Amino acid sequence: MASRINYKTILAKYQGVNKGNVRLTQSTLILTKPISATTTVYNFDVLESQTQTLQGDEIRLNLNDDFIITQLGFYIQCSVLDRTGANTGAKSYLTYAPFEQDSTNAAKIQNFWNGAFQIAVNNIVYLDKYDTRKSNYTPRTQFSDFNLLNGVPSTQPSVDFSKDAMYSNEPLLSLSGAKKNNLLLNLPTAISVATFDVLDNKGVKYTLSADRVALVIRGLNAQNGASFQS
Q1: CA nearest 32: which of 221, 156, 213?
Q2: In angstroms, rounded to a whole number, what is the distance separating the alpha carbons of residues 109 and 211?
Q3: In 3D, which of 69, 58, 77, 101 has the Cα closest to residue 205?
Q4: DSSP codes, 122-186
Q5: Which ranges of the chain does DSSP label H, i.e. alpha helix?
Q6: Are the CB atoms for 141 and 153 separated by under 8 Å?
Q7: C-alpha angle with apex 194: 190 to 196, nearest 5 degrees?
Q8: 88-99, pLDDT tens digit by residue?
Q9: Across the strands, what pairs with 197?
């Protein structure tokens, strides 16, 4: 019911400024940045027009659109490597640092969930000191190699992170394709690329290379609404 009320309220605001052609659709933005051991600040690129950094698996905002945020989630993005170390092109998300898998490598990324996030639009700060700890989620079934000695597999990890790390955002904030959007993540100390070796149910090793930070934003995309927002 609340989401329906928000939909009607937002649509009415656009219509009130002669933007009756705006179409509101449920949508998602996925923004990523490469992990760097030499920085504690990550500035996410929001627009499709920022093509120099645009990744194939990212979803960014069109210049003509607004985006009204209803949920935020912070993840460590991993490249999936096969047993030879070759990149398969697949991506996987982590919602926690898997110390049970490799404590040394887990320590390299742990401080990602001790960060503070800020959103500013046209240099006006609308969200400040938002903690990434909200997205730190350790599933009940964690990463664990299969027990090949007695032929009985151990519990596999939960890989459905579609809701686990997402957190509702209220009051609603909006980004604009027509304005300067600064999405800044500040970490207490730098994190670095980490790798985790895992066995599948056939005893074949694969590797997760934790090499990017990811911000997932869900909400309403307002097509052709970018000139609205004051």
Answers
A1: 213
A2: 10
A3: 101
A4: TTEEEEEEEEGGGG----SS-------SSSPPPPPPP---TTTTEEEEEEEEEEETTS-EEEEEE
A5: 2-16, 103-109
A6: no
A7: 155
A8: 999 999 999 998
A9: 207
Query: How much is the mean pLDDT over the chain?
Result: 86
Closest Cα partner for 170 from 213, 126, 113?
126
Q: Compute CA distances 12 → 16, 31, 116, 172, 222, whole Å.
A: 6, 29, 33, 15, 12
Residue 117's identity, in one-letter code, is F
Which residue from 164, 158, 133, 177 is spatially nearest to 29, judged by alpha carbons?
177
Tokens standing for residue 216? 């997932």
Separation between Cα atoms, residue 3 and residue 15, nearest integer Å: 18
The larger pLDDT score, comparing residue 197 to residue 143, is at 197
Report the alpha-carbon distance of residue 74 to residue 210 in Å, rounded: 14
- DSSP letter for each residue of 181-211: EEEEEE-SS----EEEEEE-TTS-EEEEEEE
Residue in the structure block whose two tokens are 């960060």? 115
Q: Which residues contact 50 (CB under 8 A, 6 or more apart)?
A: 60
Q: What is the pLDDT of residues 183-206, one digit of tens each?
A: 999 999 999 999 999 887 677 889
Residues in the chain: 230
Distance CA 107, CA 93 (A): 17
On the CB side of 32, how many CA atoms lie within 13 Å of its CA? 22
